[in-house]
Amino acid sequence: MWGRTLCAEDDSGKFSCATADCGSGKVECDGGNAEPPATLAEFTLNGDQGLDFYDVSLVDGYNLPMLVVARGGHGGDCSATGCLVDLNGACPRELRVVASATNGSRGASVACKSACEAFGDPMYCCSQAYSTPDTCQPSVYSQFFKHACPRSYSYAYDDKTSTFTCASADYIIIFCPSPFTSQKVLALRREAAQLPLVNKTMMYIGRKYASGTSSPGRVQEQIIAHGASIVVSLLLLLLFL
Fold it and tell me: What residue stretch is flagged as signal peptide (predicted)?
């Protein structure tokens, strides 16, 4: 599962998005996959020993914050996972996807590529001579993602700290959660994961931090989005009380 951003219809009625577009030309993806870079929530349900396996992956890059919370499950660790940080403004220049004039955010960083997509080097893609856990090690680019979002998948062999298990759970998936209110919700849970969910020294909220300037319309957009995430987090808080 993934979220698309900066979506619109053109004069012919074709629907497309600046990030994570699925190429269908309409709102429904009809089985199409996200075009990288995209933050992905990945699930294998009722797998080995009846467990669900789930993760939030940045292996194919990043386009928005995402939180996955297991509710009412048992077995495994049932920990929350995700990336609560807006990384677009902090993305290394060589990995940035910059908005075009057509989507209203010209010049802003709207997504962050993986090093594999940006450079195509087998060393970053964990392919060819680098296709095993021993030969494919974390790069400075995957460490950028891991440092900001310690529980997220940062490269192909990052499963030891990034794959979580639970059984018979409901899963709440939140797009663009507020880091601050999400931390309050998660403080009510007993987390089995050893790594923190978010690196509190890296919190970039809103595109205004990427460019240093904001138009009045963009500020209003940020306020609406931030307010919506607070409402969702408060609803979650009621669910866990």
Answer: none
Confidence (pTM): 0.77
Phi/psi for 51 (5° steps) reads -90, 150
Task: Say if domain 34-240 classifies as CATH 1.25.10.
Answer: no
Cα–Cα distance for residue pair 157/134, rounded to 1 Å:
9
DSSP letter string, 4-58: -EEEEE-TT--EEEEES--SSSSSS-TTPPPPSS--EEEEE-S-GGG-EEEEEE-
pLDDT tens per residue, range 71-86: 989 888 899 999 988 9
Max Cα separation, the chain? 53
Report the distance separating Cα 231 and Cα 13, nearest Å.
Answer: 32
**Termini Cα distance of the chain:** 27
